[in-house]
Each structure stands twice: as C-alpha cells, then as structure tokens.
C-alpha cells in the first residue's frame, strides 16, 4: 500500500480539490458546504510526498428521516485519480467516522454517488431509500452507518468482507 499521511486541515484547503474532483462545473467560492464552518466539523486531507491528493469532511447534520440519532454527514470525499485504489479513501473515511464518534455522533450518513456506492458499502454503510438525482452530478443513494461510542467498542468499523 502507498504511504499516505492523513491530517486535519482548514476548510479553505479542501475546496480546490472539491472542485477539481467532484464539481468542476462550479467555482471554488461555490464549494462552501452548509456546516463547513461548524465548530466541530472535521476537514481531512490525505497527503503523499507533501501533496494533498485526497479530501473528506464530516459535520454534525441530521439525517433526513432519522432525527432520533445524533447524526453527522460525510461530504466532499474524493481521491485524486492517480491515487485511487491504494487505501486513502478508507483512511479518510475512518478518520471522519472516528472523529464523529468521539464527538458524540451515533450515526454517519452521506449522499453517495452511484459510482461510489460500493466504496461506502465496503465500509459498512447501508442504503436508505430510493436513488435520487442531483442536478449536474447524477444518481445518488443516501447511505448510513451506525457508530459505536468510543467508550464501548471500536468507533469506526473495519471494511466488511461480506
Ligand atoms: C470513492 C473514492 C473516494 C475511493 O477512494 P480510494 O482511495 O480509491 O478507496 P480505497 O482504495 O480506500 O478503497 C477501499 C475499498 O473500497 C473499494 N472501492 C473503492 N472505490 C470503490 C467504488 N467506486 N466501488 C466499489 N468499491 C470501491 C476498494 O476496492 C477497496 O476495497 P478492498 O479493500 O477490498 O480492495 C474514490 O474512488 C473517488 O474519489 N471517487 C470519485 C469521487 C467520488 O465519487 N467521491 C464520493 C462522492 S459521494
């Protein structure tokens, strides 16, 4: 596996890669997501040889239809084309889930692009409801995973081998 460093970064730092890898039809200034500036939000960068090649964000945000659990949303998850398939996405996701669990999160959810459905499923996320279309991006699935308290067991699950 390639060696990556994953560390917290400022929200402004992830926006250029958000644009390049996820929303090239938008301007960097438009890539401020609701909740980016939440005091408990985590933005993580994945670095290889000091260059940021992956990003992810997690922030407290209720999951539609499941108000009963303290929920956090994973957003802006992306790995540079040349660095996919070496485990960085998994490291970024794990860092996000651990952060949420450590801050009282009991559920994490995301709107997964159809093409990344298998990635989230691999890490134990389950699908919730029917697919839906996001304009200019395409079909998505809402997915979620329940989080354990860090005081009970491992906060973030390992990849599922089912
Ligand atoms: C989804 C993404 C972040 C995954 O990053 P990555 O660094 O390639 O992921 P990893 O190498 O950590 O993969 C972890 C596991 O998930 C699997 N996986 C990764 N991407 C997958 C996909 N698109 N579909 C199915 N499985 C996938 C890998 O095979 C791997 O499984 P393994 O351990 O059994 O080999 C990356 O492909 C990406 O940036 N895609 C484009 C942007 C995107 O769709 N982001 C998500 C927005 S919701």
What does this structure look like?
The protein is an alpha+beta fold and 162 residues long. It has a single domain (5-146), classed as Aminopeptidase (3-Layer(aba) Sandwich). The protein is built from three helices and seven strands, in the order βαβββαβαββ. It has helices at 11-22, 88-102, 117-122; strands spanning 5-8, 42-48, 51-60, 71-79, 107-113, 126-134, 138-146. A seven-stranded mixed sheet has the order 1-2-3-4-5-7-6, sandwiched between helices. Helix 2 (88-102) links the parallel strand 4 (71-79) and strand 5 (107-113). The protein is globular, with a radius of gyration of 15 Å. The structure holds coenzyme A. Coenzyme A is lined by residues 21-22, 77-79, 84-90, 110, 112-113, 115-116, 118-119, 122, 159.
**Computed structural class:** alpha+beta
Query: In DSSP terms, counting alpha (H) and pi (I) runs of 4 or more, how many helices?
Result: 3
Number of domains: 1
Q: Categorize the overall geometry.
A: globular
Q: Could you give the order of strands across the largest sheet? A: 1-2-3-4-5-7-6
Give me the CATH superfamily.
Gcn5-related N-acetyltransferase (GNAT)
